[in-house]
What does this fold into?
Amino acid sequence: CPSIRIGAASHLLLDMFNSKGVPLLYPWPHRFHIAAFALDGLGELTIRALLALGTIYLMGLWVLHFWKGW
It folds into this structure.
């Protein structure tokens, strides 16, 4: 199911933005991270708001596409 794969990949990608990182190559102790953001306060609120707005936008596109098919 593509939605499960997309969800798992996005979860790993978003986890790479915290300071702990993600152990992509598990037995190897190295953790991969893109940036180390402290997600508290305004930083977390900003990221959550952007993700929520992006989700609403994509859902709107999906609904418009679905309604066009009728």
The mean pLDDT is 81. Helices lie at 2-15, 42-68.
